[in-house]
């Protein structure tokens, strides 16, 4: 049994602004069923819990109209009139009992029928009073909770897909640029050796005589010492 | 052709790398819990003492060793003494275990991050049951955030024996997490050096934003007052001191080999003493800063729950006694309750069992640590904030940055010895070695995405690193001081950096820190032995809460194997070196 103090407080503020009298909340009680056919001792199928800033006969009339409307939408009950809905035991907390009688006014309609009818039209009844499931409560009628909207593709997969693609692309770029750098490094030293040889050749050709007889840049072995090396026996 | 060792582009990158490694999830989810359990403000006393006596010296030691030896953990310890190569191997094994299970946390952070882009947040409401008359039963008994964590994220089984199948959603997030780690370590220090700017700085941005938001939340001051009121009697509790020492030890990430790896990429003349002091101070300040944020969020959550509880009681009484609306308020609740008890005793006794005793203290006292804090308590607080999607995205992004930063250090600890080894690096380029390590860790990490995966995660979290690390760091400190020689190390450092070694460091390395580690080690061993069988917390879906269960024998065997596989490396390494040397000596003797 849930009532919303928050909602009540808000309405009271509105009440203060519009200068109405302070509301007295009314809350219906569920009384045990009784067989006697008196207006206030019916087998009451449901109870209305209502928070509103005023509750007068006009609002009661509207409520009866809504219940009758709900019953009229049930097949076989299209003849329900507002006068068939009876309210009683209206308490200060805006709560009361109600029953729906059949057209002959001899007996009440079974509780299950009334409950299912109200359940189907719960949204309309709520909206008629500008209330919601928390502030307008029918005891013994469980609310049909609205399921959370499930998009066809879960949102998280979309974001996962985006991140996944970005990371894969970045990884591929890094790997490819790494491979390219590696290849350039491998080509680089061999190219360097070619240019060095050419430079040494040009030096020799330009002057006719070698500029630097002790040129060890290319790591050339000095031919003068080759025979000596051959003479030495290996250890 | 020998390439020169890659270096950090600037010393700042090295400092940021150390900070992003040390400042991790433990600062956010373990320190606030310890602070709460061991006396609030007075816990800072043992914490700061342990920082100066244990944290800073050991951190400096590791950085100095790495910078001096210029190799990963295996090579560094082998250089110090050939019989110590086992220490390096043990570090690598522990790092490997850590990286396997740690990245699962990043996977969970990704999961929550991706789910934060929905309105309303999926953990703010319970899903409906089959016939849409009410909420799901498990969710009703627990809370919506607990349900989202245990059912939607983990899909946890009732016990460790029931493994279940691999859950594809966390598995996908795990693969993504490993891809991100691979992207960051792909090029070695070149790529890591740039990533650490983000992983070190962004968490601070988020923490500052959260600090401002947290302090302006309604009820934040309740949490802060609760945390910082010192309970001086806790100083006499030895557990407070032990936990402070343990927290400093593990928070700095000593013994994994990551700090040695990071320091090995330094210029030899780098002033690592200054950096060690800076990193340890920043790490501890971040812990304290994060706990301020955490406690203001705690205070908000506790106040929110307390006020909802009071409102429910007011509603119940208003309904039961047909009172005028607005008559009952928070201030007159107690008087009205006593009036009603005396005026309508029978009715009051009917209603009385349903009236809950709302207490702000009991809300604040629910101390949580670990994944429970990060994924259940924080999300519960976030769902009640305005614009909760923004706060959720920021928070999980911060968790992700902290986790990735620590992962960079872990993988560096594994990769640096591998890339240093000439055998392996001659066959495979750096990128391929990193890729292989990530692939193997990811494949084994899929074990943590099965239905019982969280129980295995807890095993790894509690046992894979605690004892072995204490042993490793103890051997490290003893080796540097006594095997290598403190004087020799001192002259090495002076030649390398140009600064003389302060007497304080010598005193700590030689005496105090090893003694502390020995006492921690003895305490843990005795704790395990005294408690007898090890137990774990299992989620019971029918009750909607955690229950304690015993580990089955094979799980105990695996725990033993985890601890043994890393600690046994140390003696086995020494033995192996001894045998190899003996054989070599035998060979040369026979030739001559």
From TrEMBL, chain A:
Transmembrane region(s): 155-176
Biological process annotations from GO: positive regulation of amino acid transport
Gene Ontology cellular-component annotations: extracellular exosome; plasma membrane
Membrane topology classification: Single-pass type I membrane protein
Main localization, broad class: membrane
Keywords: Cell membrane, Glycoprotein, Membrane, Phosphoprotein, Signal, Transmembrane, Transmembrane helix
Domain annotation Collectrin-like: ranges: 34-235
Signal peptide region: none
UniProt name for this protein: Collectrin, amino acid transport regulator
Protein's organism: Phocoena sinus (Vaquita)
From TrEMBL, chain B:
Keyword Transmembrane helix: yes
InterPro entries: Na/ntran_symport (IPR000175), Neutral_aa_SLC6 (IPR002438), SNS_sf (IPR037272)
Membrane topology value: Multi-pass membrane protein
Record-given protein name: Transporter
TM annotation in the entry: 12-31, 43-61, 82-102, 165-185, 197-220, 240-265, 277-298, 393-415, 436-457, 463-486, 507-526, 554-580
PANTHER family: SODIUM- AND CHLORIDE-DEPENDENT TRANSPORTER XTRP3, SODIUM/CHLORIDE DEPENDENT TRANSPORTER
Annotated binding of Na(+), by residue: 22-23, 27, 251, 283, 402, 406
Chief location: membrane
GO function term, MF aspect, one: L-proline transmembrane transporter activity
An annotated GO cellular component: apical plasma membrane
Keywords assigned: Glycoprotein, Membrane, Metal-binding, Sodium, Symport, Transmembrane, Transmembrane helix, Transport
Biological process according to GO: glycine import across plasma membrane; L-proline import across plasma membrane
Localization of this protein: Membrane
Family designation: Belongs to the sodium:neurotransmitter symporter (SNF) (TC 2.A.22) family.
Entry keyword annotation includes Endoplasmic reticulum: no
């Amino acid at each position: 049994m849930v009532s919303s103090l928050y909602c009540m407080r808000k309405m009271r503020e509105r009440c203060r602004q519009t200068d109405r009298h302070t509301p007295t909340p009314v809350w219906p009680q569920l009384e045990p069923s009784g067989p006697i056919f008196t207006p206030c001792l019916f087998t009451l199928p449901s109870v209305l819990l209502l928070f509103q800033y005023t509750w007068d006969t006009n609002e009661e009339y509207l409520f009866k109209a809504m219940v009758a409307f709900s019953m009229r939408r049930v097949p076989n009950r299209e003849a329900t009139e507002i006068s068939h809905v009876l309210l009683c035991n209206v308490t200060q907390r805006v709560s009361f009992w109600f029953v729906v009688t059949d057209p002959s006014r001899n007996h009440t309609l079974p509780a299950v029928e009334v409950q299912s009818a109200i359940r189907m039209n719960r949204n309309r009844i709520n909206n008629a009073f500008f209330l919601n499931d928390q502030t307008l409560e029918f005891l013994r009628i469980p609310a049909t909770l609205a399921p959370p909207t499930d998009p066809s593709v879960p949102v998280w997969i979309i974001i996962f897909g985006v991140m996944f693609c970005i990371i894969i692309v970045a990884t591929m770029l890094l790997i490819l640029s790494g491979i390219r750098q590696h290849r350039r490094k491998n080509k680089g030293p061999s190219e360097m050796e070619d240019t060095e040889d050419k430079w040494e050749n040009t030096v020799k050709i330009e002057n006719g005589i070698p500029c630097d007889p002790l040129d060890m840049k290319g790591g050339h072995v000095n031919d003068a010492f080759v025979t000596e090396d051959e003479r030495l026996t290996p250890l | 052709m020998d390439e020169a060792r890659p270096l950090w582009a600037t010393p700042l990158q090295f400092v940021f790398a150390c900070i992003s490694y040390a400042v991790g999830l433990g600062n956010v989810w373990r320190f606030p819990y310890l602070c709460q359990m061991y006396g609030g403000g007075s816990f800072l006393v043992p914490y700061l003492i342990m920082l100066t006596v244990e944290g800073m010296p050991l951190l400096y030691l590791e950085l100095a060793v790495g910078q001096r030896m210029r190799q990963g953990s295996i090579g560094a310890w082998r250089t110090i003494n050939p019989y110590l190569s086992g220490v390096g191997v043990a570090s690598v094994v522990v790092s490997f275990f850590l990286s396997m299970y740690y990245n699962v946390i990043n996977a969970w952070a990704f999961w929550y991050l991706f789910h934060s882009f929905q309105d309303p947040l999926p953990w703010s409401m319970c899903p409906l049951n089959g016939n849409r008359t009410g909420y799901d039963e498990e969710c009703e008994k627990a809370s919506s955030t607990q349900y989202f964590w245990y059912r939607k994220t983990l899909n946890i089984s009732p016990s460790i024996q029931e493994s279940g199948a691999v859950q594809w959603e966390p598995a996908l997030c795990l693969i993504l997490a490993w891809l991100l780690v691979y992207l960051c370590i792909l090029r070695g220090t070149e790529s890591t050096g740039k990533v650490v700017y983000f992983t070190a700085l962004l968490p601070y941005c988020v923490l500052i934003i959260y600090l401002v938001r947290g302090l302006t939340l309604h009820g934040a001051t309740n949490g802060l007052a609760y945390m910082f009121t010192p309970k001086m009697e806790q100083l006499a509790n030895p557990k407070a001191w032990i936990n402070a020492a343990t927290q400093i030890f593990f928070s700095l990430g000593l013994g994994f080999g990551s700090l040695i790896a990071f320091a090995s990429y330094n210029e030899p003349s780098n002033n690592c003493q200054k950096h060690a002091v800076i990193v340890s101070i920043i790490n501890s300040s971040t812990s304290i800063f994060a706990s301020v944020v955490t406690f203001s969020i705690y205070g908000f959550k506790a106040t929110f729950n307390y006020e909802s509880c009071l409102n429910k009681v007011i509603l119940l009484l208003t309904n039961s006694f047909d009172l005028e609306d607005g008559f009952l308020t928070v201030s007159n609740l107690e008087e009205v309750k006593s009036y009603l008890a005396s005026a309508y005793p029978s009715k009051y006794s009917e209603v009385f069992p349903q009236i809950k005793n709302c207490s702000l203290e009991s809300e604040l006292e629910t101390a949580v640590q670990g994944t429970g804090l990060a994924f259940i308590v924080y999300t519960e607080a976030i769902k009640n904030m305005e614009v909760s999607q923004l706060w959720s995205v920021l928070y999980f992004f911060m968790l992700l940055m902290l986790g990735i930063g620590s992962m960079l250090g872990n993988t560096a600890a594994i990769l640096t010895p591998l890339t240093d080894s000439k055998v392996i690096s001659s066959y495979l380029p750096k990128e391929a070695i990193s890729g292989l390590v990530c692939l193997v860790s990811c494949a084994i990490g899929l074990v943590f995405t099965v239905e019982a995966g969280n129980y295995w995660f807890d095993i790894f979290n509690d046992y894979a690193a605690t004892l072995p690390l204490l042993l490793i760091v103890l051997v490290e400190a003893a080796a540097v001081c006594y095997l290598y020689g403190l004087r020799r190390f001192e002259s090495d450092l002076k030649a390398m950096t140009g600064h003389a070694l302060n007497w304080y460091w010598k005193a700590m390395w030689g005496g105090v820190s090893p003694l502390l580690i020995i006492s921690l080690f003895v305490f843990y061993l005795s704790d395990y032995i005294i408690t007898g069988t090890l137990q774990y917390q299992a989620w019971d879906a029918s009750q909607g809460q955690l229950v304690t269960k015993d580990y089955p024998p094979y799980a105990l065997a695996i725990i033993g194997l985890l601890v043994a596989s890393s600690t046994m490396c140390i003696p086995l390494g020494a033995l192996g070196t001894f045998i190899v040397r003996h054989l070599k000596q035998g060979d040369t003797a026979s030739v001559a």
